[in-house]
């Protein structure tokens, strides 16, 4: 019997049940939920980093985006508010489209 002890998507218990299996779950407290979302973000980022093709990479980015949506809500924000902050920062500091790699800065 595998033991997972991790946050899963909302429909996973139903999918397990439909497969004819039994399972054990519990509902996390708000603080536990935030901690588990942070762990899940690292897990999904690692899966993205290990993606060997574009299709897999995009799937993992979608998983990361789902986590970002949930984390935004945990912090009392909407994804639109997060996007507004992102856009503001991009306007002030730019994005990453130009592929600039800073090597060093000289104080002269």
TrEMBL record:
It comes from Anoxybacillus flavithermus. This is Phosphoribosyl-ATP pyrophosphohydrolase.
């Amino acid at each position: 019997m595998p033991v997972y002890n991790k946050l899963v998507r909302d429909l996973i218990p139903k999918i397990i049940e439909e497969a004819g299996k039994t399972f054990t779950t519990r509902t996390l407290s708000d603080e536990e939920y935030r901690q588990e979302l942070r762990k899940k973000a690292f897990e999904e980022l690692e899966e993205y980093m290990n993606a060997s093709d574009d299709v897999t990479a995009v799937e993992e980015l979608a998983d990361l985006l789902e986590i970002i949506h949930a984390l935004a809500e945990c912090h009392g924000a909407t994804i639109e508010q997060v996007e507004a902050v992102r856009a503001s920062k991009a306007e002030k500091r730019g994005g990453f489209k130009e592929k600039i790699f800073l090597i060093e800065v000289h104080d002269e």
